[in-house]
Write a structure and sequence with these properties.
InterPro entries: AMP-bd_C (IPR025110), AMP-bd_C_sf (IPR045851), AMP-dep_synth/lig_dom (IPR000873), ANL_N_sf (IPR042099), FAAL/FAAC (IPR040097). This is Acyl-CoA synthase. It is built from 17 helices and 26 strands. It is of the alpha/beta class and 596 residues long. It has a domain at 490-594: 2-Layer Sandwich (GMP Synthetase, Chain A, domain 3), CATH 3.30.300.30. A nine-stranded mixed sheet has the order 2-1-10-9-11-12-13-14-17, with helices on both faces. Strands 4-3-5-6 form a four-stranded parallel sheet, sandwiched between helices. Strands 18-19-20-21 form a four-stranded antiparallel sheet. A hairpin with a 2-residue loop joins β22 and β23. α3 crosses α4 (97-108) and α11 runs parallel beside α12.
Length: 596
């Protein structure tokens, strides 16, 4: 099928993305499914799932487009029997086909899915309690592997307060025959109806439900398709948690398009990164002109390079990798270099790596680079709020240009004026991909989503309805460089220091430091903020090397940044707090330090 022709149906005569009257995502999915049937493609693989829970070799389960459509409709039919349109449905299951069946089934039932965690993973109890209380989910979808943990979690609640729990893989396929789409009355504003809720991490506040509408989801999917330059035939390999925006939106896109998405659990990648590299590699059953896509955070590059390097370059064929989008955290020169050194000899092209930037409040992607491009900026100028090229400074990754159908501006958060190219300010965006706000949080929604620019520089920029992202950035040669988080700046003696810059210095100071395992943050002092650094030891390092490493770290940070760390603490691997996607959670670690 010609997807470019389908996309054109959403572009009006002014070139804007506009949803047709009474549009729904299930209606689009069903249209594409019908087209697939006409082309005889319904028996082609749609979901491939590797289950390593039983053995290290793994068990492969394959679901055709026909089977996936049947399972989605079976879930939808059951949800329609027990619930009403608009009910909220929490997905609490491991990465699995059932997760996707449940998510899409809720959409097909005109209910609102809420992608949440694998219930077997520890550490989510308080966050889950807050999310379920905030969302007031009527139903929880899980699978047989997650059901015991889900039932145990809710067993402590009074029966009247427990949501309904359904195990997706216990529902018979025959239910699909009873599914009928819910009629949408003429004139209904379906574009701004809630599609699903994406909850924020809540590391410094109660988690907030980002309201993603049909308009924002479809707009960003078209933006992703255009910016990533997706080529057919294609398949995708994913290990990211499906409750993360990158995981669920990319998976949903592939399921709707009828392309193959291959998934496994994050822990199965962490335990053996080679499993993921093998998924990226050419398979015997691949068409000759296959294009493979994936999305990963930066830390995965180093992990894969260290533990998945092939014995011989020709053991794998990565020439089929067309796009590896790197997001979720800062992209580092070291990460890209080590990844290319490991896998370039196996055919991986540097241009296949695509650093990007996005956030849930913009649905997913905001910027996407054509290839890794690092520019070295002067450290002192950066501390003063400007990016100026320097031979000896901080290498930073370009996140490319903004995606189409969206405005982006760098704004002084105090004056609310747009700043010129080269100046650091808060990144603001405006477009139909921006979410509808936070669920039941009017004040926070106004603060984040309803901002006005006082003075603009770019011609034709709208004045109102800007999303203030909270991220600091600057534009250089037309491309966007993310410099840090507004609330994470380390300010000592009136100078701004970016935590990721200090963390890079620490990692380069001693072999005692584990890569991508440093947290730098500031805590209040009597007169000035104090710099605290948490460090994980390298895999083979012991506590006896802490003292020498501390001296080396203190010397490097002092000489490079002009500040001396007040406290340096060492931890064993994986002891520093991280987000569920593996990123260092600076503010969580700061909270841990302050609460002692």
């Amino acid at each position: 099928m010609d997807l470019d022709v389908i996309i054109q149906r959403f572009i009006n005569e002014d070139g804007d993305i506009v949803l047709p009257d009474n549009f729904t995502i299930p209606a689009l999915a069903e249209m594409l499914h019908f087209m697939g049937a006409q082309m005889g493609k319904l028996d082609e693989p749609n979901i491939r799932y590797w289950d390593y829970s039983g053995s290290s070799e793994g068990e492969l389960r394959i679901y055709s487009r026909r089977e996936v459509n049947t399972r989605i409709k079976a879930v939808a039919a059951r949800l329609m029997q027990v619930g009403q349109p608009g009910d909220r449905v929490a997905i609490l299951a491991p990465n699995s086909p059932e997760y996707l069946f449940g998510f899409m089934g809720a959409l097909y039932a005109s209910q609102v899915p809420i992608p949440l965690y694998d219930p077997n993973e520890p550490g989510h109890g308080e966050h889950l309690k807050a999310v379920l209380g905030d969302s007031r989910a009527k139903t929880v979808l899980t699978n047989k592997a997650g059901a015991p943990a889900v039932r145990a979690y809710f067993a402590e609640q009074p029966a009247a307060q427990r949501p309904r729990i359904l195990s997706v893989d216990s529902l018979p396929d025959s239910l699909a025959e009873s599914w009928v789409p819910i009629e949408t009355p003429e004139g209904t504003d379906t574009a701004h109806q809630t599609s699903f809720l994406q909850y924020t991490s809540g590391s410094t506040r109660m988690p907030a439900g980002v309201v993603l509408t049909n308009q924002s989801v479809v707009t960003n999917v078209i933006q992703i398709y255009t910016a990533a330059k997706l080529k057919q035939p294609l398949r995708a390999a994913l290990w990211l948690p499906l409750h993360h925006d990158m995981g669920i939106i990319v998976s949903m896109l592939l399921v709707v398009l009828g392309n193959e998405v291959e998934i496994m659990a994050p822990r199965d990648f962490i335990q053996q990164p080679k499993r993921y590299i093998d998924q990226l590699s050419r398979r015997e059953d691949d068409p000759e002109d296959i294009h493979v896509y994936s999305v990963v955070p930066n830390f995965a590059l180093d992990l894969a390079a260290r533990y998945a390097r092939p014995g011989e370059p020709e053991d794998i064929d990565l020439s089929v990798v067309e796009g590896l989008i790197i997001g979720s955290e800062s992209v580092t020169q070291a990460g890209v270099d080590v990844f290319m050194n490991a896998f370039g000899p196996s055919g991986l092209r540097l241009g296949a790596l695509r650093p990007g930037y996005g956030l849930a409040e913009a649905t997913l992607i905001v910027n996407l680079a054509d290839e890794p491009r690092f520019t070295t900026f002067d450290r002192a100028e950066l501390a003063a709020g400007r990016i100026v090229e320097s031979a000896d400074g901080i290498p930073m990754a370009s996140t490319g240009r903004p995606v189409k159908w969206m405005h982006l501006a760098i704004v002084d958060p105090e004056t609310r004026n747009e700043v010129p190219e080269g100046a650091v300010g808060e990144l603001w965006i405006h477009g139909a991909n921006v979410a509808g706000g936070y669920l039941d949080r009017d004040e926070e929604t106004r603060e984040a989503f309803d901002n006005t620019i006082n003075e603009t520089i770019q011609p034709g920029l709208p004045k109102e309805k800007w999303l203030a992202t909270g991220d600091l950035a600057a534009v250089h040669n037309g491309e966007v460089y993310i410099t840090g988080r507004l609330k994470e700046l380390v300010v000592v003696a009136g100078r701004n220091h970016y935590p990721q810059d200090i963390e890079a210095t620490v990692m380069g100071a001693s072999d005692h430091v584990r890569p991508d395992s440093v947290a730098a943050f500031a805590v209040p002092g009597e007169d000035v903020e104090r710099l605290v650094i948490f460090v994980e030891r390298a895999e083979e390092a012991g506590e006896d090397g802490d003292a020498a490493a501390e001296d080396a770290i203190r010397a490097a940070v002092t000489s490079t940044h002009g500040i001396s760390p007040e406290t340096i603490e060492f931890y064993a691997p994986n002891e520093i707090a991280r987000s569920s996607s593996g990123k260092i959670a600076r503010r969580v670690n700061m909270k841990k330090f302050l609460e002692r």
